[in-house]
Amino acid sequence: MRESPAFARLWIGGSISGIGGQMTIVAVGLQIFAITGSTLAVSLVALFALPPMVVFGLYGGVLADSFDRRTVALVSAILAWTSTLGIAVFAWLDIRVVWPLYVLTTINAVAATVIGSTRQAITPRLLPTRLLPAASALSGISIGVMVTVGPALAGLLVATVGIPWTYTIDVVLFTAAFLGIFTLPRIIPEGERQSPGLESVMFGLRFLKTAPNIRMTFILDIIAMTFGQPRALFPAVGALLIGGGPVTVGILTAAGAVGTLVCSVFSGRIGHVRWQGRAVGRSIMAYGACILGFGIVLAVVTFGNAGAAVGQNIADANLPALVLASVFLAGSGAADNVSSIFRTTILQASVPDVMRGRLQGIFTVVVAGGPRLGDLYVGILALTGVLWFPPLLGGLVIIVAVGVILRLQHTFRHYDALDPTP
């Protein structure tokens, strides 16, 4: 941040606005669950948002490779802020239907996807290559703060002042994003630019076919997020299993971010790791082990409760189970952060600047879309009424699948940070 004040402003603005964004994610889940009483209805937020995110994530990368990246990020931020304002208005009007939430959260997710891919394409232009791992670690700190403070605030605010005020605070906090983006210099992509059309998208996808290391980072992250993202369970866990209601939901959601934050703060030596592909695989396997542990905790509580009443006050919650579940989720956050640092560094260091927007767009679609597939996976399996089954099965799938892939993919296993190749 000392070397690049522009990066510092972008990072600070994104961190502050991200806190509000995480508050809204938790509040939307709680609002939909309060209206419908259905975990599947909560997970449908993911289903409706995923196709537009894929389309606009890819096209957003094209825009970032075709125009001034500052302008692309600014327009997307305006759209995200407007959709958040709309969510707040519907909450204040007390409309007891869920379709407006699905529509507005989809618009918000699309805008956030474009902002994310554009911001990551901007970073290598603001910093030298040697500082890219440190920038990724700072992103981990940012995510840790956002997902620690945001959900915790959401749980407290929903339980005290209500959902409308929670959304309104997000509207105010999001204005910090404009400061970080507006003060950037113009950032025009370097190299031969293409017209922002379908051919440009296809060119980026053809480049990905020739980039096995980048491709593997996407595949491994999809596996981790599809089978290891239990957040759609949290409202039901707080209401029916561990107890504690909205406060428990906030704690469980924040726990992963605590692990991310602590890991990022002590991540200085990560920048010296040479075999980064191997590190990605091992960290994702550790992530799967933590999700498996979370499922085991839920299973033990399920069989231990056996029909007992569950209190909605945090004082009446099963505190030992809440602590153990939070520890495993914190471990998953730390492991995922290590994976994210290396995956981001591999992409930013090995991809030409004129292609970074498109590849970052695909990366952002994977990062944002994977958890939504995970929400859908959890929502479908939760129809069995067995809350512990999705994370327990998912953790096992991650460990086995990633272990097999690492054994078979020699190129990725031997990716060398001193000679970065896509």
From TrEMBL:
Transmembrane segments: 12-34, 40-60, 72-93, 99-116, 137-159, 165-184, 218-243, 249-272, 284-307, 319-338, 359-380, 386-406
Membrane topology field: Multi-pass membrane protein
Cell compartments where the protein resides: Cell inner membrane
Major facilitator superfamily (MFS) profile domain residues: 169-422
One Pfam match: MFS_3
Molecular function terms, GO-annotated: transmembrane transporter activity
UniProt xrefs under SUPFAM superfamilies: MFS general substrate transporter
One Gene Ontology cellular component annotation held by this UniProt entry: plasma membrane
Keyword line: Cell membrane, Membrane, Transmembrane, Transmembrane helix, Transport
InterPro entries: MFS_dom, MFS_trans_sf, TM_effector
Name of the protein in question: MFS transporter
Species of the source: Leifsonia tongyongensis
